[in-house]
C-alpha cells in the first residue's frame, strides 16, 4: 500500500476504485442516494443541492446516534486493529503495510478504510524525506463519530 505498491502499477484505476468504494460505503451507511451521484461529487466536484446537504446531514446524525447507542448494522469499531496500525506508523515501519491488501484494510478498518489510506500516503510522503518520529499521540474510540479518532504529530529525525 505504500510507495512500493505505487511502483508496482497501482494507478488511477485503484484510486477510482477507492472512491467508488467510498461512495458505496456512504450510500450503504448513511443515505440511500445513488452511489453514481456520490461518485460524481467526490471525483468530479459536482455540488450538492441544499436539500441534498440537509438530507445527508440528517442521515449522518441519525446513523451516528444509532451506532453510539449500539443499534446499528454497521461494523463495530476495532480499537485493537487501530492500535496495531498506529504502532506501525509510530515505529516508522511502513513497509509492513505493503502486505496489507485493500480488502484487508477495508475489512479491519471498516468505514474508515479511506482514512487509513490517507494516513499511509501522508506518512509515506514524510518518510520519503528520511526517518521520522511521532511526537504527539492521541487515540480514542469515538462511536458518536462512527470512528476511532486518532491524531499524530510527526517530525523528521
Silhouette:
globular
Percentage of residues in strands: 5-15%
End-to-end separation: 23 Å
- Overall structural class, as computed from helix and strand content, comes to alpha+beta
Number of helices: 7
Radius of gyration: 17 Å
Number of domains: 1
On the 0 to 100 scale, the average pLDDT is 80
The SSE string, one letter per element, is: HHHHHHHEE
The quaternary state of the protein chains shown equals: single chain
Please give the number of β-strands. Answer: 2
Largest sheet: 2 strands, antiparallel
Stretches where pLDDT falls below 50 for ≥5 residues?
A: 1-12
The helix fraction, in percent, is 55-70%
Strand order of the largest sheet: 1-2
Question: How would you summarize this macromolecular structure in one to three sentences?
Answer:
This protein is an alpha+beta fold and 157 residues long. It contains seven helices and two strands; from the N terminus they run αααααααββ.
Give a verbal description of the structure.
The chain is α+β, with helices and mostly antiparallel strands and 157 residues long. It has one domain. Helix content is 56%, strand content 13%. It contains seven helices and two strands; from the N terminus they run αααααααββ. A two-stranded antiparallel sheet has the order 1-2. β1 and β2 form a beta hairpin. α2 crosses α3 and α6 packs across α7. The two termini are 23 Å apart. The relative contact order is 0.14.
